[in-house]
Amino acid sequence: MKRTHFAALLVAVAFLAALLAAPPVRADERSDKVDKLFAAWDKTGSPGVSLAVIENGAILYKRGYGRANLELDVPLSPASVFYIASTSKQFTAMCAVLLALQGKISLDDDVRRYIPELPEYGTPITVRQMANHTAGLRDELLLAQLAGRDFGTIHREEAVSMVVRQKKLNFEPGTQYSYSNSGFLFLSLVVERASGKSFRQFAQEAIFGPLGMNHSRFLDDYREPVPNRATGYLIGPKPGTFFNYVSTYDGVGAGGLYTSVEDLALWDANFYDPKVGGPDALKMMQTPGVLKNGEKLDYGLGLMLGAYKGLPIVHHGGILEGYRAEIMRFPGERFSVIVLANLGTIDPTRLAYQVADIYLAGRLKPEPEPAAPALRIVTLPEARLKALAGTYVRQDDRTLLNLFVKDGKLTVEYNKLPIPLSPVSDVDFHVPTMARFLFDAAAAGKGPAFTLWFGAQKPARYERIEPLTVTPEVMQALAGSYFSDELEATYRLAVKDGTLVFAQRNAPTDPLVPTAVDQFTAGTLALRVVRNATGSVAGFWLDGPRARDFWFEKTADRPASRPGR
Length: 565
Known about the structure:
Helix content: 10-25%
Number of helices: 13
Number of strands: 30
Strand order of the largest sheet: 17-16-15-14-22-21-20-19-18
């Protein structure tokens, strides 16, 4: 008996010696690195982040950093429930896909089959086009902004009413891609009307219940308490201070989902071992959309499709004031990162990439070097640089870009910051690894113009506009009230300190800068004046980044906003 015990003891000692002799491997080495990424928020008195790192269907690491509620000093945890904004879109798309697989709808149906109150625009809009942002619908968020409304106070029925009042589309359905929340707002209505259930109920029964996502819900009534909810925050006026983000918005479809990183891990697992939808549903969601000209998109149905450092990724972020979200999946590695934040200045997409860098080290490839490997910078005379300086207007959306000479370099103003350009010839200028400005060869009778390549965006054309002087008489003729029946909003133009400005409630703060005769730009908005046969001002057309061609008719002076609107 004693010999048996002694032998067992020898085996145990030998095993322990082997362990001690092995090179030390710290199980938490990667998580330590991750903690350092989030250290800025890992404290009391600060909103922060909940994180889940997943591989092969198992959570490798999960943690909360910062506070879910500053007033009650409630810490964030992996169980904290966040509003995830546009990250909700993949769930809305899955609801539509499930109905299609059940034969209750077709993704290629005319959406007016389910939403007859939507105007006829000449070319039918399909369910699929709404789910991959090719329908051409004006964006509900911009509509609210242009109407002078706080989107956080708009209810779903109001948002639907705003969109169905629109007389035009941004473009013919299927011919362009333009991210539009309106498509997913209407997609949720299709789900409701085809299923006979509320959107919230259908999602609960079809997705959240079967996956065990017990802390997830589409909140269709803002008055309802949400257990474990993290409060959203905005940066306050002084360092270290915050404002509560208070919203009564209860729209669902484009957003509206409250959930946790633990629940989203269950959703992520469904993409490898599908309990909901099966392989057909997942394939439909992750198939790139295609325009009528055959061009493939990097967007499927509610999901963005791309690559990071040589590896395919499927992902989607979400932003609404005090909330931020990102789900990033590396399908070939069976690896995912989920980052949910309750502070409006946090960038969850960048953080997800950084977490992936830590866990996928050795599997990721270095980013390729810029296509121009040997940029030979030249020195140009200042006279040449001054000849190219000026204000340039983008030809598609009429937004402005200013070029000027500073410290002997041609410089561009971007986000109110001066960025010097590096010349490689007298017409070719670069911001290394970021952008290229290629000016046209000089031509008689034509002013300077250039093509801009910026990141992965499509090339954009800019032409220089000569400084325009708008006389006080012209500005006074433009001053007055203008009404848009599509927005149910009145705009006022006024002259202030010799400059034409918007003067209605919640007006854009940028001044109206002339870009051509009877054409103006104010920030991201472009305005085109229309005159009648006698030369008097009849009104103007207004364009924004996700909605175009709003007609404002000049009227007799009226209140700048309607009561209750």
